[in-house]
Design goal:
529 residues, Rossmann fold, six-stranded parallel β-sheet, 17 helices, 14% strand
Length: 529
């Protein structure tokens, strides 16, 4: 099949393909399009840049045009890839067919996406997380969705979308056609295909003659501290757009800032940017407003920019298969490209795995990398399995369960020690029940020295009387002198009220008669003219 007309497509679809300058189908398109048109499920594996997007979009749109009640759901791992797929869908449906589409991705307002869903779109493209959000809010109905596409499935599972995918399939009808595409087919993808695909057709396109012949590969063994200086030298030598892959989000942002300070126009692309910032960065990069784009592995899947000529792996990927996705950003559509890897001594194990993946016939199979995240997790799980379970007791601390026979002996020893304790450590408090409300000094007979807590001897009749009698147990009553005064003297001469004071001369009494108070004349105030 040398052209698209041999697939038996409609005239509207052929016109749309001519407008998009699609003249000759790629190998994945030659195998996948007839299978989808015949209604079979597909388990396809092909590398990036081979035309997978058109391989499932063309036949799905062709069948939606024949059945006006059907729907299609396309799931992608990243926002950028979903944006690119919805652009291809819009170009293919811009030929007179009334097929509406919607893009449901994170980072955008739910209100805008809900408005798109109110128009009853028949093609929904999005990420699993946001699609699941709309399903829980009952904003989208997938009962008539009979076409489901999972693209870059290995990446979706690596990003932790497995539970969201399982949740979405609960809303789908039982009878449906499922297309699963992935750059690689590890064991977890095979298990997922057995769960959701029914007698799928296996479509595999090898990448040895598709990517590696038109891409020049170089690797440079260098110390990690010298990588940035070598990067400046490589950027000065190379012309055209450059895509640099770094490991962390903070590292991409810091590197882009340093490159701008050193005279290179650069921008960063990572997961912490909001959707508006991502769109601005990608649109500016497509328009060649800056030369260098520093990104994490978020740009390794589905980033379709034709003018990327060089890919620099500043940090090697943690998984060897991601290297193929990275270098697939250059050499698009058969054009030439180049890639270079900075390999530090700490990354030698990662490079051995990548080299074996590129040359499986000539290279030796490397040892398993024990420094990767998955291997470290596996080692910790094995070590936890080998260690016997431990139990804890309050007295003897941790002990093994195998020594359960000695529990009775430890209990006997603890009981004997309790019986042999001396009574002097904890003196008993001997007091009678009748003395609870009486004299408190009699309640603590076992104490050695009762002088620490003197008893307060007073009679109940003296509560409202002379207060000096209430404190009979004190050594020196002079500290708190009693105030002796009569009730009749409250309004009379105040000097008689303080009879207990030593020296009454400090506060002389003021004896004034009413006549003297009247005879006092107020001083006149002189006015100042």
């Amino acid at each position: 099949m040398n052209n698209f007309e041999s697939f038996g497509l409609s005239q509207k679809m052929n016109n749309a393909l001519v407008d998009m300058k699609f003249t000759k189908p790629t190998p994945i398109q030659q195998k996948a399009i007839p299978i989808v048109l015949n209604g079979f499920d597909i388990l396809g594996s092909a590398q990036t840049g081979t035309g997978k997007t058109a391989a499932f979009c063309i036949p799905i749109i062709e069948m939606l045009a024949k059945d006006e009640k059907s729907m299609a759901l396309i799931m992608m791992p990243t926002r950028e890839l979903a944006r690119q797929v919805i652009d291809v869908v819009n170009q293919l449906t811009n030929n007179g067919d009334k097929i509406k589409s919607a893009c449901l991705i994170g980072g955008e307002a739910m209100r805008i996406q809900t408005k798109q869903l109110s128009n009853h779109p028949r093609i929904i493209v999005g990420t699993p997380g946001r699609i699941n959000d709309h399903l829980e809010n009952k904003k989208v109905n997938l009962k008539s969705c009979i076409y489901v596409v999972l693209d870059e499935t290995d990446r979706m599972l690596d990003m932790g979308f497995g539970q969201q995918i399982d949740q979405i399939f609960k809303y789908l009808p039982e009878e449906k056609q499922t297309l699963l595409f992935s750059a690689t087919l590890p064991d977890k993808i095979i298990e997922l295909s057995k769960k959701y695909l029914s007698d799928p057709e296996r479509v595999a396109i090898k990448s040895n003659n598709v990517l590696l012949t038109n891409i020049e590969h170089d690797n440079l063994n260098i110390d990690h501290n010298k990588k940035y200086k070598e990067l400046l030298n490589q950027l000065a030598k190379r012309e055209g757009s450059v895509l640099i892959f770094a490991k962390t989000k903070f590292g991409t942002q810091r590197m882009a800032k340093k490159l701008c300070e050193d005279g290179f126009k650069a921008e960063a692309l990572h997961g912490n940017l909001n959707q508006n910032k991502r769109d601005r960065v990608m649109s500016a990069f497509r328009l060649k407003k800056f030369k260098v784009l520093v990104a994490t592995d978020i740009a390794s899947r589905g980033l379709d920019v034709d003018h990327i000529e060089h890919v620099v792996n500043y940090d090697l990927p943690q998984v060897a298969e991601d290297y193929i996705h990275r270098i697939g950003r250059t050499g698009r559509a058969g054009s030439k490209g180049s890639t270079i890897c900075f390999v530090s001594p700490e990354e030698q194990g990662l490079w051995d795995e990548i080299y074996y993946l590129l040359n499986p016939d000539t290279a030796k199979k490397p040892k398993k990398n024990t420094n990767s995240r998955a291997s470290r997790k596996r080692i910790t799980e094995l070590s936890l399995r080998k260690k016997p379970a431990r139990s804890f007791s309050k007295r003897s601390g941790p002990r093994r369960r195998d020594e359960s026979s000695g529990r009775k002996n430890t209990r006997k020893n603890s009981e004997e020690k309790k019986l042999t304790r001396s009574d002097s450590k904890r003196p008993s408090r001997k007091f009678k029940s009748s003395n609870k409300d009486g004299d408190k000094s009699e309640r603590y007979v076992g104490k050695k020295n009762n002088s620490k807590r003197p008893s307060k001897k007073f009679k109940s009749s003296d509560k409202d009387g002379d207060k000096s009698k209430r404190y009979a147990g004190k050594k020196n009553n002079s500290k708190r002198p009693s105030r002796k005064f009569k009730s009749s003297d409250k309004d009379g001469d105040k000097s008689k009220r303080y009879a207990g004071r030593k020296n009454n001369s400090k506060r002389p009494s003021k004896k004034l008669t009413l006549s003297k108070m009247k005879s006092r004349s107020k001083p006149s105030r002189s006015r100042i003219n």
